[in-house]
Amino acid sequence: MDMDFSPQDIAFREEVRAFLRDNLPERLRDGARRTPGVFVEPDIGMEWHRILHEKGWVAPHWPEADGGTGWTPTQKFIFEKECALAGAPALAILGLRLVGPVICAFGTPEQKARFLPRILSGEDYWCQGYSEPGSGSDLASLKTSARLEAGSGAGGDEYVINGSKIWTTHAHHANWIFALVRTDATVKKQAGISFLLVPMDQPGVEVTPIHSMSGDHEVNAVFFTDARTGEENRIGAEGAGWSIAKFLLENERGGSCFAPRLIQSIDRLEELAQTQPSGVNGAIAHDARFRDRLARVRLEAEALEVTELRILAELAKGRAPGPQTSLVKLLGSNIGQQVDVLRLELLGPDALQLPLERPLYGNEAPEPVGSEYAQTAMGRYLNNRAATIFGGSDEVQKNIIAKTVLGL
Fold first, then answer.
1. Which of 150, 168, 331, 361 is deepest in the core (most CB within 10 A)?
2. Residues belonging to the active site
3. Is 0.70 surpassed by the pTM of this model?
4. Which CATH class is domain 126-237?
């Protein structure tokens, strides 16, 4: 594999850098830096979303015919890396990276025309209805049901939905949810699942907040009591939901580039280590044990970057990402947790602060103890403990890798 960028790729990188320099406001960088959660709040994320939409760069992972950029896999990687280096907010993935590609791949022309423009513009904000109480890693055991009823008058047939979903990110902001539901309980459990798009603003949909240990409100429980959605809002055929879900999970687990943001975090740790006291003799950067651990995690992040580039090379040849995405998800989550631990050790007692006010940016934000970096350190650590669970736990990823990559 040729690891060198072509002259065209280098020119594209310079174009991206110039755009970020001229169009990424400092208040968005500041908001992203001061956000300890996994997702930035919509006031930060959606402003950046709209800036990128105006440029035509908001959906690089979509087909060009559906509103994507037409970039090569290498250009997509360059764009994500430069955004990470510039401190840009990470965009909400639920619409752009998860349900959007599903609609592009499996939606009817009518569904594409209805939903894709509103995802691109940010008019619709999505959440994901997958996990349920008792059905997380064993997602195929889900129990939320959808029964098709004949419509009356001018209305078409509708699904009536009953059940609940949990750990639903940003459901309190969303006006649509894409959900896996059981439409047939008489067949093999994977075969009875369908993929529905459901409006949130209706009777029968209740959102209950779940506050994390860090004090963040990112996830929720969602309860459906005779909630309704039209048959035209089903993606694919009845019973095709499991296959569609696997396609979506490949995008969730490996559709992003983990390494650039990890390497940026490690760069920041190295900078801070030059000034943070070790408590023994000078800065902690001179502590051999800390330097060794930091060097090891950097090597792991750089190895992950090479793995991501190898996957990009396969995508450039027209091949599907496949089970390698599980490897990226497994490594990215674990390296990220190592970075969190090093951050806490580096910052010492200042990292013990855990302000519960939100947001931690803007005029009403509480004053940090020591630094803004220390103010978010514990929140990041606590929130990212879930990284090895959400999107498929480590155990699930290892099973996938063992079966499909190693052939065990």
1. 168
2. 252
3. yes
4. mainly beta
